[in-house]
Amino acid sequence: MTAGTLPGVHEERRASSLRWLVDDSLTIAWRWLVAMVRLPESVVFSAIQPLMLVLLFRYVFGGAISGVRGSYVDYLMPGIFVQTVTFGSVISAVGMAEDLQKGIIERFRALPMARAAVVTGRTLSDLTRNLGSVLLMTGLGFAVGFRIHTTGLAFVAGLAILLLFSWAISWGFALIGLAVRSPETAQLATFPVLLPFTFASSAFVPVDRMPGWLQAFATNQPVSRVVDGCRALMSGGPTVRPVLGALAWSVGLLVVLVPLAVRRYVRTD
Amino acid sequence: MAGEPAIAVHELTKVFARGRVRALDGLSFEAQQGTVLGVLGPNGAGKTTAVRILSTVLRPDGGRASILGLDVVARAAQVRRSIGLAGQYAAVDENLSGRQNLVMIGRLSHLSRRAARRRADELLEQFDLTAAAGRSLKTYSGGMRRRLDLAAALVAEPPVLFFDEPTTGLDPKTRQDMWAWTERLVAGGTTVLLTTQYLEEADRLADTVVVVDHGRVIAQGTPASLKADIGTTVLLVTLANADDAARAAAVVAPLGTHPPTVQGERVEMNVADGARAGSQAMRALDAAGLLVTGLVLREPSLDDVFLQLTGHRAETGPEPLDRPLHPVPPPEPQGVLGR
Fold first, then answer.
1. Touching check for B89 and chain A: CB below 8 Å?
2. A172 DSSP assignment
3. Measured between CB atoms, which of B82, B85, B157 is closest to A107?
4. Is some CB atom of chain B closer than 8 A to the CB atom of A41?
């Protein structure tokens, strides 16, 4: 038999490896977004959660929390944004663990696709989802009294910083999902990380009301830095230092987590 | 590339769990282009590990493997363009429709958007899934899933296919279909590596069979030569009274190639010439005054092959997914003499 009589491999498009990374990542992101749209009830419930948080914090804690300059709702909204995208990124861990468990990653690994695309696509789909949550919350926020005290452009920049941070931690959660291998464990494994970072932070209350030993952590940890950056861009005050602090954390996390997650994906035993 | 084996495996080793489990222990075999190679072995023999290494998913610890002359480690990216993978785990996306699954695989195999859609529709038609194309996989039956899994392996029309226990857990009808599809693919020039626990399946499809146990090849040849080597037929005598079994075993023992085994009221033994041994056994048992309720001659099963080649029964693995979900019916008896 000669090579000419072999069944022909389909005419494959030629392109650079960066092009494949982009294309393949978008295909994987498409896969997750289609799956989400095919389950409309999951969209509804994942939209309700951030809306409930806005309402509860605004009306339940709003009256009791003091020591905040300006109105509490203006203080609160950047915090709720960051908390919601942080919790929203947990789904990356569950998704990767599920894929591993069901064996579909085995098929992806045997396809000529870009190695980093499976995790990149997953994190991009979460980024899209988080964008949706943030837009919804902004709408409700305006309805319950939230006002921008800077410019529209600064507000959009604030959202961009927030979403960059959410993308960075999606990589971290994807890494957890790839490492623990079971969706249930993945979900449980993320809470010990999530709770201290979201609550021992400047998201809901000013850090200076916390005990001294906690303040050092609460001031400098990534969630607080990102909240402070967003708050500066949305409600005013000194901007440069908080924004740089937020960007430094997000970029730093990406630099560390992206290679770790891709390495973990490629490793099979 | 003419004459190059489609699949070549040389002294492959793979060790898991920090050296405690030796999954592959010097595995070697070859498959020529346009043929079916059956890799036959019990659970835990190393079949799936070998397929995972050949499909570039797993790196070997030692030895070499190549697909159409391309090394699976050094030229993994090129190998991935030449292979398709279908397996017992039916790895498709539950949350998408059948068509969306195939379009996704097409896109990830770097077909253009239009080509991926066209190919998906072709395959849905071919595997009789057109009516269910838009439905979520959650509504698919086990057989439909397996068909979609096979279709997914064929999206890029790869010249080399790996079917890892493709019929484990399938109903007889889908099994027959799967065999017919495999035959059609091979007639078109595709090379197929098929792992299986069923001698019957290897017998039906494979041009060459390698029998694997503990990560190494313990026998190889055509299905016919393999069966000839291991004593062709199994004689199974069922007695009315279990107390007579030992005496019956002693009566038929001289007819066998190996000593008989007794289990309850059943006596089992390998014989060389099935028909003659059957009638002789009948007469001998009659003469001894033993009441026989059944006498069956059947093709040897994988279990028999293993007993013959290794002296031990094929061990069943610990993973429940590795076992058939529905027991596969035993091969058709060659002839039944009964009372």
1. yes
2. H
3. B85
4. no
ipTM: 0.86
Mean pLDDT by 10 residues, chain A (269 residues): 40 72 96 90 85 87 72 89 90 91 89 94 94 92 90 94 96 94 88 88 86 89 93 90 94 96 86
DSSP B295: E
Task: Tokens for A243, please give them.
Answer: 């924004």
Give me the domains of chain B, ranges plus CATH numbers. Answer: 7-220 (3.40.50.300), 228-337 (3.30.70.980)
Sheet containing B21-31: order of strands: B21-31, B7-16, B62-67, B70-71
Helix A183-199 and helix A152-180, axial crossing angle in degrees, nearest 10: 140
- Mark which residues 286-325 of B lie under 8 Å from A by CB: none
Q: What percent of chain B has pLDDT over 70?
A: 87
Q: Is A223 helix (H, G, I), strand (E, B) or coil?
A: helix
H helix or E strand, kind and range, residue A134:
helix A117-143
Q: Rounded distance, CA A207 to CA A224, Å?
A: 9
CA gyration radius, chain A: 21
Tracing tokens 């949706």 back to the chain, one arrives at A132
**CA pair distance A229, A238, nearest whole angstrom:** 9
User: 3-state DSSP call for residue A258?
Assistant: helix
Task: For chain B, say whether A30 makes contact (Cβ under 8 Å).
Answer: yes
Partner A, chain B 121-150, Cβ-Cβ below 8 Å: 136
Euclidean distance between CA atoms A246 and A202, whole angstroms: 13
Q: How far is CA A265 from the centre of its chain?
A: 19
